[in-house]
Amino acid sequence: MRDWDANRLARAAGARLVFRPDAEALPGGARDGVPSGPLRVSIDSRAVAPGDLFVGLRGASTDGGEYAAQALQAGAWGVLVAPEHAIAVAAMAEAAGADARIGYQGVVLADPDPLKGLQSLARAWLAELRSGGGARVVAITGSTGKTSTKDILAALLAVELRTVASPANFNTEIGLPLAILAAPADTQALVLEMAMRGPGQIAELTAIAEPEVGVIVNVGPVHLGLLGSLEAIAAAKAELIAGLQHGAQAIVPAGEPLLGEHLRDEIPTITFGPDGDLQLCDEHPDGCVCILDATTAERSEIFLRPSFTQTHNLRNLLAAVAAARALGVTPDGEVTVRFSALRGERISLPEEIVLIDDCYNANPMSMRSAIDDLAETAPGRRVAVLGDMLELGPEERRFHREIGAHAAAQGVDVLVTVGPLAAEMASAFAGAGAHTVADAPAAAELLARLLSRGDTVLVKGSRGVGLERVGQALLAGEVNGR
To answer: pTM for the complete prediction?
Structure first.
């Protein structure tokens, strides 16, 4: 949007242009070859930099529009806020005139719903990316593994295409538009993650992104407390398929019965996993994997050497390869992926201790996968620090007991449960190595006494448990092996 002037940006956002200073007074404005439009979009007034467009969103306890003047003082190109804030800050800006020392100069846009304005702006910018450089969008959702699949796909596509992937957790009705607006004008592939907390949310995101490829990684018992059943979860995820436009493609797990009724005859579907169009046919000791590709009449084999070996990420690799093939990209050779933070990152610590930091979130599917990975890869003692899995509904205690039993079956040596629900894991853990604590600080304190040289420590739980503090204590050297 660097070249979009105030009028064009207002039309794109569906907003009303309340105030526009002289071009000479615009921070980063159209003078001396400097772009006439904003350099980026921000929703945090504290992080506004010169040339930004600040969008003041209404929150549960605060209204970002109240900080419009602060954003302009920080050098914002302009602000997009509710009418009452726009009128007030426009009066200040007009009173300031051309005196840049007062610091209120900038474009002022009004929209009764600034979030809708942000989303409309994202749609318009995405249309520009498509018409100007032929950018194509892949949208990824799923009960677990969607972020890792996004990271893998971005690495696969980047070899051939100028690729942008949504950062961190920019996967909501706010984050997804920001991810789109951050994509530079020469973007060729945009990989967007879509999160779901209830019915209608994936549909909303799909309407903004209009993806050429829609990927559902899996369907599992996540947000059961909100949606009530696996069938309802599948229907919410399948809003991605329902929203695909003519000519788009869907990618789903092979043989997933919960998605069968949601597939569309007019939308080509690629499946991955056992008996799917993309399936893992061989793994070699040197880390090379062979993927059978049956998406065309000539069945072919794709040989890759990924920088990861976890079973669940190899499944995610299949989904990512399917998406790459849908865009006409055939991956080959080395695949180096830097996964997003707190999602299975392996960190070497003193005393040959290895931390598996996977505490971004947790559900029964991802918890089982993480325990399996710990069991397969740990050369020494297997230590699992597992926290509450939230939003699982009436059966939450049963789900936790099943995880405790699974940890025991997989040979976990030491289990530390964090929180009242996770305590149910300890009750089902057959062995003397189970410990229960109330919170993350108590877990870190206990680990200081439990860890030994050569241990591998998995830390995983729902974000609300705050287990990142355990990882931080380990990294800070507050927990040392004996």
So the answer is: 0.89
